Amino acid sequence: MRQDIITLPDITERSHSHKATAQVFNDPESKKLLEYIKQIAPSEASVLIHGETGTGKELIARQIHEHSHRRHKPFIAVNCGAFSENLVESELFGHEKGAFTGALSSSAGWFEAANGGTLLLDEIGDLSKRIQVKLLRVLQEREVVRLGSRKSIPVNVRVLAATNVNLEQAIIGDQFREDLYYRLNVVTLNIKPLRERKGDILPLAYHFIDKYHAQLGYDKAEFADAAKKKLSSYWWPGNIRELENMIHHALLICQNNLIESDDLTLLKSPSQLNQSKLNEDKPAQPVIDPKLKEVFHSLFQQHEGKVYAQFEDQLLRIAYHYCHQNQVKTAQLLGLSRNVVRSRLIELGELVVSRRGTE
């Protein structure tokens, strides 16, 4: 239902276009997730949010914040993959004047900025092992030390982490610290991809129609039944963000304020691509002319007269190669049993039979 939709604040400087800008809790799976969020939000436990890109992990984190005792304090989301190795430490923990070239003044990091509130560390798996060590210390000691300083600053921050990678596999690959993983993973939220919560698709689609109507003045549009079916059956590799882009494009090209099925540009699923590749690689099956089949059949129904003997042999060879050396297809084409075709092909030398194990 449209009233269940939550959206990101209108932050004009937001540059990460892969983020979902809206979330809805209409599908039964989403409703269960919302109830679980309300249950765990009041605690101070760290939460690890896992989901594919574009599923709305930041929006889920904001829901946790809004249902917590910190809701009147800052909520800050930081993309850990957006900073270079040299800058990420300063961004997270702050720096003092002169700590590095270009540090013309002291600056607080994101932990200090979120003091009293909630800090979301998005794409946590992109942090280097060196920064992971420092992050673990901050979580354990509840204090930060700015770059270029020896003074510790107490911080009271609830940390949420989000990732689209399997951190357990990253631990095995020595890319993520196991102790940090368990520190972050007190509570786990697995956000299902859009294809697994179909009840959210149309409410989100209508939300994006309303959004672009309000922002850009597009006319209000409706979906044809075939378009609704197409939306519901699609596999949504880009999740909510892909849906928004698709609706935006459809609004640009649809006629008479009606979004038709052809207005929705969809990507083929891996299974469809594999099937297309198989079809390309598969030899074309022979098209059997009914009249030709009838002639073949009538000829082979003749008695074993010598008049047709040579012609039959040649005809069998032609049919066999016409069917790409497939005995079953040849038998079907000629109206004979496979055993008859097989024995005749052996007699003609077209089919060599291995005799291993028979001697």
TrEMBL record:
User: Which Pfam families did the record assign?
Assistant: AAA_lid_14 (PF25601), Sigma54_activat (PF00158)
**Looking at the keywords, is Cell wall biogenesis/degradation present?**
no
**Which Gene3D superfamilies does the entry link to?**
1.10.8.60, Homeodomain-like (1.10.10.60), P-loop containing nucleotide triphosphate hydrolases (3.40.50.300)
* Domain of life assignment: Bacteria
- Key words, A-Z: ATP-binding, DNA-binding, Nucleotide-binding, Transcription, Transcription regulation
Which stretches make up the Sigma-54 factor interaction domain?
Answer: 23-252
Do you know which InterPro entries this protein is assigned to?
AAA+_ATPase, AAA_lid_NorR, Homeodomain-like_sf, P-loop_NTPase, Sigma_54_int, Sigma_54_int_dom_ATP-bd_1, Sigma_54_int_dom_ATP-bd_2, Sigma_54_int_dom_CS
UniProt xrefs under PANTHER family: TRANSCRIPTIONAL REGULATORY PROTEIN, TRANSCRIPTIONAL REGULATORY PROTEIN FLGR
Instruction: Kindly provide the name given to this protein in its UniProt entry.
Output: Sigma-54 dependent transcriptional regulator
Q: Which organism is it from?
A: Acinetobacter thutiue
